[in-house]
Amino acid sequence: ELTKISKKNGLKLVVDNTFTPMIFSPHLLGADVVIHSLTKFINGKNDCVGGVICSSDEFIDSLIDVHSGTAMLLGPVLDTLRSSSIRKNLFTLHIRMKKHSENAMYLAKKMKEKGLRVRYPGLPDHSQHKTFKKMMNKDYGFGGILTLDMETIDNAGKLMTTMQDDGVGYLAVSLGYFKTLFSNSGTSTSSEVPIETQKEMGLSPGLIRMSIGLDQDIEMTWNKIENCLNKI
Question: Does the keyword Protease apply (predicted)?
Fold first, then answer.
């Protein structure tokens, strides 16, 4: 639908595919420009800050035009060392995305079975599950991001602190790392949004965003999470 609207009105459709590299191919679905934060899943190590713009040769050439190109004038160019490092990590991206998705699905199902308020697009009761399935590249799963609603900031804080102390992962606002990361959205990535607006958006004060890591023994990870839940 967005593609139809943009084409009809002579606009470029820009899609941020940071959360779902390999899983979605926006350019095949009609996007004119696709952007990624290289810092997240693509690099996978949280050791650099970078981004990328993918589009037609004509559009990219306009960005780097020596006289009027935005990229040329503002100078957002990665150094060669970081560029080389990220390029090397691209060779394992397809393997990593499969594992992120596999682990996230496992944990989402376990949380659901326990009666927790979990949201993950791979679960059939997710409002966008069917839409996601129609657009996804099926070999790579439903992604590595899920949310767990602990209802209150206090509960969320206690659980995240306990999970970090017990070795589940790290309390951090990034994502796409090989270790599991978690943060309370209302007090971190959405902290600039007024409380009343957060309520209107349906953003629970106890919402935890989890970027699921590449743990080989995901059953052990779940056991740790379950123990943490029991402690609070």
Answer: no
User: Of 5-9, 164-168, 178-182, 187-191, which gets the smallest average pLDDT?
Assistant: 187-191
How far is Cα 190 from Cα 195, in angstroms, rounded to an integer? 10
Distance of CA 114 to the CA centre of its chain: 24
Helix (H, G, I), strand (E, B) or coil at 192: coil
Quick one: tokens of 132? Answer: 């996601």
Angle CA(79)–CA(89)–CA(141) in degrees, nearest 5? 135
Residues in the chain: 232
Reduced to 3 states (helix: H, G, I; strand: E, B; else coil), residue 123 is coil
Residue type, 169: G
Is the pLDDT at 32 greater than 80, yes or no? yes
In DSSP notation, 126-190 reads STTHHHHHHHS-GGGTT-SEEEEE-SSHHHHHHHHHHHHHTTSEEE-S--S-SSEEEEEGGGTTT
Residue with tokens 């059953």: 219
Nearest to 80 by CA among 44, 50, 54: 50
Tell me which residue of 14, 223, 24, 48 sits closest to 143, measured CA to CA. Answer: 24
Band (pLDDT 50/70/90 cuts) for residue 31 is very high
> Are the beta carbons of 182 and 163 closer than 8 angstroms?
yes
What's the rounded Cα separation, in Å, for the pair 160 and 181? 9
